[in-house]
Amino acid sequence: MKDLKPTCRIAVVQAAPVLFxxxxxxxxxxxxxxxxxxxxxxxxxxxxxxxxxxxxxMTFGFTVGARNEDGRKDWQLYxxxxxxVPGPETERLAAAAKAAGAYVSIGVSERxxxxxxxxxxxxxxxxxxxLAPVHRKLKPTGAxxxxxxxxxxxxxxxVDTPWGPMGSLICWESYMPLARTALYEKGVxxxxxxNTNDNPEWQATVQHIERHSLxxxxxxxRPLRALCRAAGVGQRGHxxxxxxxxxxxxxxxxxxxxxxxxxxxRAAPNRAGxxxxxxx
Length: 280
Prior knowledge:
Strand order of the largest sheet: 1-2-5-6-7
Oligomer: single chain
Order of helices and strands: EHEEEHHEEEEEHEHHH
Largest sheet: 5 strands, mixed
Helix content: 25-40%
Mean pLDDT: 83
Number of helices: 7
């Protein structure tokens, strides 16, 4: 195991995008990256869908079985301002990351250059200006499925950094225990969860994940199968099953085994076989 750098100076960007304008969003991101670099940031993290913004509350004229014409125009505008990766926008972001000498994480609406499908994606640029493998959101949340498709490649990419492997899950992906486990299995020491929420519930979620994650030393030293076995569950594909050694008569749901009552006045034996309270 290599020695890890003990500290990381992180800039968490709290800024509003220029909605539905990929060029203006990119301009703003480049300017903010340079500003963070002046403060000595080594890792710069932008929110979910900073380019071209999260269309919060919009329906794009969609109802079950139909769309209206104004909604179609809104959709076309959003689609046109989603970016192809790699493309002109990513080239500018890569140059900004290189000039800053920092890792840059930024959320974008990616438009597939072949199919035209949109994906909620998170990009990570390295200090040398290279673009790491792209993470596409596995399953858009709720009505997001009207806008973005399911991830179809490059699941759970991680980036090697001086602080250890770094990966990301987008917003409510962090509610998926097995998705988090996939990152833990890769030994991530930096876990980025970009989102657009600022409500107390989300803050509580992040705290819950941080506090209840398995100890990192266990994750580094033990494979997933061993961890599942230690937890009393099995692993096969994407499902969890009871291991053979745990097979036994099942109790009704909600029931539990009750220790039989001892006869009144009878003392319980201790480990040496003697009766508690009995004289020797």
